[in-house]
């Protein structure tokens, strides 16, 4: 599915299932919605509208290479809402998509019926970095660990310029994002290897945004009932991040899923499905 934005860009999205519309924003930044797959079977109870953010999955790249700011992504979500003709929507954001979802919900509170923040963070400060290092250390006995850590450092330092260079780095670091990385997880990773990852947006994010953005002061503006869900062993957006968000949003529900890393809907699909569906339907 596709539509044109007010400034003439094409945005695409995948539509799957039936029931109430659930708008889903993937992470990265730089990834399309493909990695959501069927989002733990939520299509059985909801119409999933999975946006391919600007510059991914057939959505046009902006002419300005710096037009990947958080507010740019927020503007695209609002364009999508208007295109769908939905006054108040169910909104789910994962990883960087959760940053977009938080920002959207603070800027457009009247248009969010319920909010799901999956593997979310509101900033990346000293506490988050310490938790990340601790999470990485838990994986230090794995044979893939040294190369995965080296790849993560290359990615965060921006040692890539092309989409393919980024993809080569990303698939080396990907095992870090799982509580357990075995054959099933490797097979899931292989299914994503045809994905074009947008290097422009991740390069900008890592250089200019990752260590400076901070949504904490804005979170009390969120009025929608909110679910904050993350994996117990998510090394980068884990319980420390979830607690900071859930305490800042009035009445937010926090769920920590055991034996799961950053990809909860892949690692523990039944738990993710049940928690999200029950919350959205409550």
Describe how the helices and strands are arranged.
Layout: E1 2-4, E2 10-17, E3 21-25, E4 47-52, H1 70-84, E5 89-94, H2 96-107, E6 112-118, H3 126-137, H4 145-156, H5 163-173, H6 183-191, H7 199-209, E7 226-231, H8 239-248, E8 253-257, H9 264-267, H10 269-281
Parallel strand pairs: 3-4, 3-5, 5-6, 6-7, 7-8
Antiparallel strand pairs: 1-2, 2-4
Helix pairs in contact: 1-2, 4-5
Give the key terms.
single chain, 282 residues, alpha/beta, 8-stranded mixed sheet, 10 helices, 8 strands, 39% helix, 16% strand
Walk me through the structure.
39% of the residues lie in helices and 16% in strands. It is built from 10 helices and 8 strands.
Q: Could you give the order of strands across the largest sheet?
A: 1-2-4-3-5-6-7-8
Order of helices and strands: EEEEHEHEHHHHHEHEHH
Query: Approximately how much beta-strand content do the residues carry?
Result: 15-25%
- The count of strands amounts to 8
Q: What is the arithmetic mean of pLDDT?
A: 98
Spans with pLDDT under 50 lasting ≥5 residues? none
Main beta sheet, described? 8 strands, mixed
